[in-house]
């Protein structure tokens, strides 16, 4: 019935996005557990019509919200309500929406199934790292599907993960306000940064939670309750505090800029020095995820997509303005 | 002379007195030729010219003598002169006598002449007359001749059968071929004869047929009488059976009377009547159908339409003349045309839908004749008197109680596309202005009357279709009942809400925790424009969910210093279409769904997850359950707000709710989902 569908769309939140290996398609997961596949190439082409901005296919992936998604070179992995499921991109594009496999990490608590907030691919070791509600990082071998180890340390649930390729190390940020670095080979915690304890960036009225993490090997940028800050990892010191009042939910390095998005409509572009280069408004009142399509196979689809508290995915062809929006 | 004449006379007289004898007379005449002197004969003998000369001479002599006498008398001498005078006197006397004779002769001549002319004239006159007579006769004869020539005998006017036919058909004694062939006169006579024969025969036949007809007519009369005597007997049987009908609960008679009146209904109302009665008998005993209105007026509508049209044009002409004089009557004239266009058929169908709680929905269906649409007026009566709370004013109002029974059917526009052209002629912009008076032309009303209006082009003839009506009857009746009951339920709920109590029925208690601290403080209606101007309702307005057929309310929930405003959109299709809530929380700043994910989550809990809140079957508890859930959500929100370490003092709202986890997911949503019966809160 129309009213109900309209209401659903009004209350939709898109939590995660993932670009296909060919670079021409974008998957978006929402709070109803649905995944929609958009054809970026069709939407970006010159004959794009209104239907091109609608999903090619939408399917019910999970029972709960789809908090995070990643793509390997053949699979789409989605996770949300405690399970991680895999889908074949080739199948999905043909509208055959059947999961390839699903896995549930071994949780400690049985009262409530904890959510999985972040997925991280470690391509060299063929590992998938999951982190979420049970405050642990689980590592799953993608070939065998077994969970190898779990890293404990966080005292509250984990929001985000980032990979430091050189070491290799995994950074995790959580609700407890700490960013922890874990060594993948030794499976031990290497470093802990308690962001909220640093006066430059802490904002007690927002809380201490770390909502977003990004790392560039030597540098790390994180934000959330505390202000968005650029850290030098080796010395664990905050070098730049970005003057952004609203808590940020997603941050990423791009070329020589830092892109961040969070509460508030805009995608913010920062210089490494801390200056705000641009603020480009999107169509959602709050943004939760940014995705840069840097797949080499589809250079024409090189866009930035942002999604959040609405049923729309904003597409920025040029970082300066929002070109159009895809919509569920 | 006189003595001579007297002499002459005397003998004549004596003779006539004497012995009679014409013969004698004539003899004596001839004898007297020699004896008596006849002046008449003398006239013929004398010459008139010489008589004239004599006369002239005599006159001269007389004159001379007179002159001489005069001379002599004047000379005076007595004797000699006296003799001469005497002499002359005697001569003049003689002359006088001559003159007298001449005079007589002249007279006689004159008389003779006159007599002769007279005679001649008479002759001429006689001839003349004769001539005239003859001429006249000639003319007369000529006329007669021509008449005779032109005379057409009656027999030529008769269409006689053609010659061939005649010779074929006529019996030989009439046709007499040998004679008639040669002689046209005989032929015609024969033909006439034959004609006469035939006519006689036919006249006979005609008389026979007439007598037959008379017989048959008499038979018919007899049979008619027989039948007419039957009718009163049947009536009496029916009367006698009435008590039996009532006893068996089969009021055929009453139904029959209704069908009688129904015959005068216009086609769409008739379809509605038939279908509704059928449905009422078959499926729904709580439905009663009746016909209201004046049957006589309905019959009068079928009088010849030309009269009324002529009257109209006459009255129009009169009115036009008057409008030339005074401006205001132009509006009156237009008004009358409008009234004419919007005229209703005098009969209307009344449907009474009785619901389980003894409330009745009265629907009166009218048919607008010129516009060819049906309208309905609705009225709800309840078993007990309802005290209307202020906010419930519009719920049961006749204007809006049936609005949007089917989605989008707001009943303010005429469903017949052809009406637009009719409206343009009389300056009616839209039917909306007249809807209060005429009733609402909902689409389902048209469908119940079997009127089907295609959307694309206007049609002049619209067919009334029983199958269309039948297929819609059941759904519509059910919808109507649900509508009335849901409105009545809302009515009751509003009364309670206005007092700050959220009436949660006992079978919905499981949806909420036992202790709810937040309270509903205010519940009022707001206008549609006010709703659209609120800053936190922009999304709903943009999504097109806030039209003008909806009802809008504002609720205020409070706990401590926190005030939660909720703007509610109530769709007329409640409760199958859920009310929509938009929230704005004033506590430590203003939070709406734009800047706070948790407010968004709360809205989602109430708007999207409404199916769990519907309650038992008819779902009338939806609104109250949603309001109660809103209070619970506010409680959770306030109690799970993380404490700001930098600020001194205890939390305003200590956490009393049992929650497994306070935050979850990237948006850090609070645990809004209530789990029954364990009584703890978790995330969806």
Automatic annotation (TrEMBL), chain A:
<dbReference type="InterPro" id="IPR015943">
    <property type="entry name" value="WD40/YVTN_repeat-like_dom_sf"/>
</dbReference>
<dbReference type="InterPro" id="IPR036322">
    <property type="entry name" value="WD40_repeat_dom_sf"/>
</dbReference>
<feature type="repeat" description="WD">
    <location>
        <begin position="151"/>
        <end position="192"/>
    </location>
</feature>
<keyword id="KW-0677">Repeat</keyword>
<dbReference type="InterPro" id="IPR019775">
    <property type="entry name" value="WD40_repeat_CS"/>
</dbReference>
<dbReference type="InterPro" id="IPR001680">
    <property type="entry name" value="WD40_rpt"/>
</dbReference>
<protein>
    <submittedName>
        <fullName>THO complex subunit 6 isoform X2</fullName>
    </submittedName>
</protein>
<comment type="similarity">
    <text>Belongs to the WD repeat THOC6 family.</text>
</comment>
<dbReference type="InterPro" id="IPR042626">
    <property type="entry name" value="THOC6"/>
</dbReference>
<keyword id="KW-0853">WD repeat</keyword>
<dbReference type="Pfam" id="PF00400">
    <property type="entry name" value="WD40"/>
</dbReference>
UniProtKB/TrEMBL annotation, chain B:
<dbReference type="Pfam" id="PF09766">
    <property type="entry name" value="FmiP_Thoc5"/>
</dbReference>
<protein>
    <submittedName>
        <fullName>THO complex subunit 5 isoform X5</fullName>
    </submittedName>
</protein>
<dbReference type="InterPro" id="IPR019163">
    <property type="entry name" value="THO_Thoc5"/>
</dbReference>
<feature type="compositionally biased region" description="Acidic residues">
    <location>
        <begin position="307"/>
        <end position="320"/>
    </location>
</feature>
<feature type="compositionally biased region" description="Basic and acidic residues">
    <location>
        <begin position="22"/>
        <end position="42"/>
    </location>
</feature>
<keyword id="KW-0539">Nucleus</keyword>
<feature type="region of interest" description="Disordered">
    <location>
        <begin position="1"/>
        <end position="42"/>
    </location>
</feature>
<feature type="region of interest" description="Disordered">
    <location>
        <begin position="303"/>
        <end position="332"/>
    </location>
</feature>
<comment type="similarity">
    <text>Belongs to the THOC5 family.</text>
</comment>
């Amino acid at each position: 019935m129309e009213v109900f569908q309209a209401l659903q769309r009004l209350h939709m939140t898109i939590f995660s996005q993932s670009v296909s290996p060919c670079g021409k398609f974008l998957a978006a997961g929402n709070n109803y557990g649905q995944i929609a596949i958009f054809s970026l190439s069709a939407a970006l082409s010159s004959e794009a019509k209104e239907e091109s901005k609608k999903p090619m296919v939408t399917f019910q992936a999970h029972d709960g919200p789809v908090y995070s998604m990643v793509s390997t070179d053949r699979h789409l992995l989605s996770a949300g309500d405690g399970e991680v499921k895999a889908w074949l991109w080739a199948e999905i594009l043909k509208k055959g929406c059947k999961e390839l496999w699903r896995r549930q990490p071994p949780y400690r608590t049985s009262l409530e199934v904890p959510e999985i907030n972040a997925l991280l691919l470690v391509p060299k070791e063929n590992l998938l790292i999951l982190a979420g509600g049970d405050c642990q990082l689980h590592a799953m071998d993608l070939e065998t599907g077994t969970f190898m180890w779990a890293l404990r340390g966080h005292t509250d649930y984990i929001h985000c993960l980032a990979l430091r390729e050189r070491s290799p190390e995994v950074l995790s940020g959580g609700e407890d306000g700490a960013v922890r670095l874990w060594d993948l080979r030794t499976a031990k915690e290497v470093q802990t940064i308690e962001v909220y304890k640093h006066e430059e960036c802490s904002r007690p009225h927002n809380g201490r939670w770390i909502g977003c993490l990004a790392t560039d090997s030597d540098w790390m940028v994180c934000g959330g309750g505390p202000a968005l800050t650029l850290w030098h990892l080796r010395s664990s010191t905050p070098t730049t505090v970005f003057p952004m009042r609203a808590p940020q939910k997603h941050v990423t390095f791009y070329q020589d800029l830092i892109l961040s998005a969070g509460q508030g409509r805009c995608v913010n572009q920062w210089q490494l020095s801390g200056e705000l280069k641009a603020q480009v408004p999107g169509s959602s009142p709050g943004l939760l995820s940014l995705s840069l399509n840097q797949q080499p196979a589809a250079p024409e689809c090189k866009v930035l997509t942002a999604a959040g508290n609405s049923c729309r995915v904003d597409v920025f062809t040029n970082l300066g303005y929002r070109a159009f929006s895809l919509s569920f | 002379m006189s003595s001579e004449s007297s002499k002459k006379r005397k003998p004549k007289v004596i003779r006539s007195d004497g012995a009679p004898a014409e013969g004698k007379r004539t003899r004596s005449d001839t004898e007297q030729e020699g004896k008596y002197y006849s002046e008449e004969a003398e006239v013929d003998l004398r010459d008139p010219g010489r008589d004239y000369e004599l006369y002239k001479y005599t006159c001269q002599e007389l004159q001379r003598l007179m002159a001489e006498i005069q001379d002599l008398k004047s000379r005076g001498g007595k004797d000699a002169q006296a003799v001469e005078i005497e002499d002359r006197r005697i001569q003049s006397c003689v002359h006088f006598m001559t003159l007298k004779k001449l005079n007589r002769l002249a007279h006689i001549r004159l008389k003779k002449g006159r007599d002769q002319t007279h005679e001649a004239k008479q002759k001429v006159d006689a001839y003349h007359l004769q001539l005239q007579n003859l001429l006249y006769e000639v003319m007369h004869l000529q006329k007669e001749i021509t008449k005779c020539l032109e005379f057409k005998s009656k027999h030529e006017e008769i269409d006689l059968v053609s010659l061939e036919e005649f010779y074929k058909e006529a019996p030989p004694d009439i046709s007499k071929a040998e004679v008639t062939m040669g002689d046209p006169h005989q032929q015609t006579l024969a033909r006439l004869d034959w004609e006469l024969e035939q006519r006689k025969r036919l006249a006979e036949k005609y008389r026979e047929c007439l007598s037959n007809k008379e017989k048959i007519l008499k038979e018919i009369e007899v049979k008619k009488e027989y039948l007419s005597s039957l009718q009163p007997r049947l009536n009496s049987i029916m009367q006698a059976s009435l008590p039996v009908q009532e006893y068996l609960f089969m009021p055929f008679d009453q139904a029959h009377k209704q069908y009688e009146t129904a015959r005068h209904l216009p086609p769409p109302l008739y379809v509605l009547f038939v279908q509704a009665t059928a449905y009422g008998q078959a499926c729904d005993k709580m439905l009663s159908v009746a016909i209201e209105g004046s049957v006589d007026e309905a019959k009068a509508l079928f009088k010849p339409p030309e009269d009324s049209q002529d009257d109209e044009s006459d009255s129009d002409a009169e009115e036009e003349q008057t409008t030339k004089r005074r401006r205001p009557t132009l509006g009156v004239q237009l008004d009358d045309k409008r009234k004419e266009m919007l005229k209703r058929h005098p009969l209307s169908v009344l449907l009474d839908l009785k619901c389980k709680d003894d409330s009745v929905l009265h629907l009166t269906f009218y048919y607008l004749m010129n516009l060819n649409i049906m309208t309905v007026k609705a009225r709800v009566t309840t078993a007990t008197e309802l005290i209307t709370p202020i906010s419930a004013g519009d719920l049961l109002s006749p204007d809006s109680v049936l609005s949007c029974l089917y989605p989008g059917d707001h009943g303010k526009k005429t469903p017949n596309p052809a009406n637009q052209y009719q409206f343009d002629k009389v300056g009616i912009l839209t039917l909306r202005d007249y809807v209060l008076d005429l009733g609402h032309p909902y689409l389902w009303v048209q469908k119940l009357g079997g009127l089907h209006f295609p959307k694309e082009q206007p049609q002049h003839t619209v067919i009334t279709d029983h199958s269309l009506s039948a297929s819609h009857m059941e759904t519509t009746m059910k919808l109507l009942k649900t509508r009335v009951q849901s409105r009545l339920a809302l009515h009751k709920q509003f009364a309670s809400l206005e007092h700050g109590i959220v009436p949660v029925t006992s079978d919905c208690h499981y949806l909420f925790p036992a202790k709810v601290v937040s309270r509903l403080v205010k519940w009022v209606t707001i206008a549609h424009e006010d709703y659209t101007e609120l800053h936190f309702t922009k999304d709903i307005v943009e999504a097109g969910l806030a039209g003008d057929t909806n009802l809008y309310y504002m609720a205020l929930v409070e706990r401590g210093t926190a005030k939660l405003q909720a703007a509610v959109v109530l769709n007329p299709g409640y409760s199958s279409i859920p009310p929509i809530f938009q929230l704005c929380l004033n506590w430590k700043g203003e939070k709406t769904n734009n800047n706070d994910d948790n407010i968004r989550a709360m809205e989602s809990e109430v708007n999207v997850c409404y199916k769990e809140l519907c309650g038992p079957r008819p779902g009338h508890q939806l609104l109250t359950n949603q309001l109660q859930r809103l209070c619970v959500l506010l409680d959770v929100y306030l109690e799970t707000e993380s404490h700001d370490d930098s600020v001194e003092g205890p939390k305003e709202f200590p956490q009393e709710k049992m929650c497994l986890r306070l935050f979850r997911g990237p948006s850090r949503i609070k645990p809004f989902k209530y789990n029954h019966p364990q009584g703890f809160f978790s995330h969806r």
